[in-house]
Amino acid sequence: MAEIDLYLDPVCPFAWVTSRWLLAATAHGPHTVRLRQMSLAVLNEGHDVDVDHQPMIERSRHVGRVFAAASNTGGPEAFARLYDSAGIRMHVRGDDVGPDTLAESLTDAILDPALAQYGDDPGLDNAVTRSHEASQNALGGRGGSPIIVIDGHGFNGPVLTETPTATHGRALLDAVLTAAATPGFAALHRPYQGPPRIETTEATH
User: Fold this and answer.
1) Model pTM score
2) What whole-number distance in Å separates Cα of residue 70 and Cα of residue 80?
3) pLDDT tens for residues 129-147?
4) Are 39 and 128 in contact (CB under 8 A)?
5) How far is CA 105 from CA 54, 63, 111, in A?
6) Please, which pLDDT band fits residue 201 given cuts at 50, 70 and 90?
7) What are the residues whose beta carbons fall under 8 Å from the beta carbon of 37, sequence distance 6 or more?
8) Axis-axis angle for helices 54-87, 99-108 (nearest 10)
């Protein structure tokens, strides 16, 4: 049985696809999966960000604060529930991630919708930074979203451009587990393949 942590920024579409794969592939197995927060906003502090990516960084900052508030309230389980409900709105439906959408997502996640107000509260930035630093420590260096940690071995990715079929998803999980358990395995990387293709048939709870 493997202990698997997946660190992700809630606004990252690649992390959404990876999380759907990982949760589906482990749904009926012995492995333990925890979704944890990291931050593209914190990752890019002090670095030049091109104009095209600046809106995502701003979304990361505001949405990340709300997720930190939810985690402070209900722990990792609250984070996972909110990620499920908000992720469907952000990544599947393409909704704007303003206060109203976040309040609806919080309600669906059985959390106080008033937590949506924390998106503009810099007092949550320290909590976001702590979560992000935990992701970098687990990886052993600077890395983006997502980061997978298997029994203490951290890797950037897997980065998926579409959700694999059930058969391919289980095979990919086996391959990732094998790679993590292989002494000396460090990295496997392909050139950028473009943005992920996300199914739009998923419904909210």
Assistant:
1) 0.93
2) 10
3) 999 999 999 999 999 999 9
4) yes
5) 24, 12, 9
6) low
7) 7, 8, 9, 10, 64, 67, 68, 71, 79, 128, 131, 132, 135
8) 30
